[in-house]
Amino acid sequence: MAIPGSLLSAAHVVHLKSERLVMRRFTVEDDELLVELDSDPEVVKHVGGVPSTLARIREEVIPRVVGYYDTLVDGGVWATHEIATGAFIGWFHYRPDRAPPHDQELGYRLRRAAWGKGYATEMSRVILTHAFEALRHPRVIAHAEKANTKSWHVMEKLGMTRELERQESGVPVVQYGISREAWSRRSA
């Protein structure tokens, strides 16, 4: 039996689409989907390395994620599916960074089966275009562990530049960023 939410359905609220992907709102029924995503040690390797429990997903993650839809304008965390198959591949987020100055942050977590297909770059381009052209945000940032070279290569493909390196809980992290002006020059 498939995990609820693992296939795209007509009941889902769609947010953005790319050529091959669609982002939709998460629902409270997606708890097992998130547990399954985080159960792969390679998927969580660069985000603390500890799989999320069903209790944590239900008590902390889902309420926070679903709450974004009420408090942010076109911001939040979205379940992402392949258009061709309807299969869940992971999630993307676009929300204010937790650290001052609270720039808008782009992020994602994908199933291992979705790696190497260009999905991170493809959907991140759609999100950045929406952020700069529709929402008129002045700047967007993204973070990754320094050891996660695949993620920061995606950031570079998007035209983001490395702005700083810092330690978070003893782990080296890189921050990339791009302004609306730089995005416009790149997209022209």
Features:
31% helix; alpha+beta; Aminopeptidase; 5 helices; eight-stranded mixed sheet
Structure report:
- With 188 residues, the chain is an alpha+beta fold.
- The chain has one domain (14-187): 3-Layer(aba) Sandwich (Aminopeptidase).
- It has five helices and eight strands, in the order ββααβββαβαββα.
- The chain has an eight-stranded mixed beta sheet, sandwiched between helices.
- α1 crosses α2 (54-71).
- The chain starts with 13 loop residues before the first strand and ends with a helix.
- The mean pLDDT is 90.
Question: Can you summarize this structure?
Answer:
The protein has about 190 residues and is α+β, with helices and mostly antiparallel strands. It has five helices and eight strands.
- CATH fold naming: Aminopeptidase
The CATH superfamily bears the name Gcn5-related N-acetyltransferase (GNAT)
Task: Give the overall silhouette.
Answer: globular
Unreliable stretches covering 5 or more consecutive residues: none
Average pLDDT: 90
The total beta strand count reads 8
| Estimated structural class | alpha+beta
Alpha-carbon distance between the two ends: 47 Å
Query: Total domains, how many?
Result: 1
User: Mind describing the biggest β-sheet?
Assistant: 8 strands, mixed
What would you report as the Rg, rounded to the nearest angstrom? Answer: 16 Å
